[in-house]
Amino acid sequence: MKELVERLVVNRRLDNESLRALLTECTTDANVLQLLRDCAVRTAREQFGLGIYIRGLIEVSSYCRCDCLYCGLRRSNRSAERYRLTHDEIMACCREGYKLGFRTFVLQGGEDGTHTDRWLEELVRDIRQSYPDVAITLSLGERSEESYRALYEAGANRYLLRHEAANADLYDALHPTAKGLKNRLECLEALKRIGYQVGMGMMIGVKGQTIDDIVEDLQLIGRMQPQMVGIGPFMPHSSTPLGGEPAGDLRLTLAAVAITRLMLPSALIPSTTALATLSPIGRLEGILSGANVVMPNLSPSDIRAKYAIYENKASWGKEAAEGLAALDEELKTIGYHIDYSRGDFNNK
Ligand code: SAH
Fold first, then answer.
1. 121 CA distance to ligand 1 centroid (A)?
2. What domains can you pick out in the chain, each with its CATH number?
């Protein structure tokens, strides 16, 4: 196993068989997982030092036309409370975030049919004009290439669109109403073509996912070379068809994060909110597996609970924008600190 990890460090890739063996071993042999994570941390430190970038997450709408089996915002979830932030409310979040020191705003939401290109363009343009020095990241699901282009021209810089599953059968099983993996990947290609810094990723431990599927996910990420990669454990939501399933495995998630760091040394990799929700030390464990970004919640406090992609999602304390001092304190316990710069890929 040591030899496999060394090979991954040197070549930045491994064949399927080796990846499968390494992931499997990480769930049973703590020493192998530790070795892998140590290598990933060393690589991240070479790239980013001890600074952790922060992104202010604004959850713009909980309306969604999709019916993804795992997600609490799925349209079939009648018990979900829906809300949609207004233009002015989103601008107020940005104002607050800028004051707190955020230089990246992430606008994330369900696929809300009322979010027309025109409405979003005006919003992005307003943010761009008000805060010329921030990065604007969108995470609004699948849209047309035309739409992605218009939003890029309005001033957006980055787009997060996890591929969710590189295995087309698993993808279809999890996303009954979606347009399929092919369309998802075409969206990612379009975003890349337009010039966005692009984020991919997947959950670990969602029902039906095997180790081989994670291997496929990692190989797809290696081929696509995205600038950002989000990986977190699956977290059940009781009002979804997967509500009775167990949460994803912490060790396997950390192993996938560490392998991703070694495959893509300069990628921006968040220690995800799902990790912080799964374990009280999840956020630090992610950083100690090679992650270099955290995304505190900048949504208005009265709607945070309603953006429940899974239950008990952390959005307070160190996961909250107003908790940056506490986050910095926590990072200091492992020798890190918040890096308040914009944190573009390769500082572009
Ligand atoms: N509608 C946008 C944003 C989705 S929410 C889009 O389609 O991209 C952001 C991410 O949260 C998703 O990509 C998914 O991977 C993750 N997510 C959703 N439900 C989850 C759950 N139950 N557990 C863990 N992660 C989840």
1. 23
2. 35-339 (3.20.20.70)
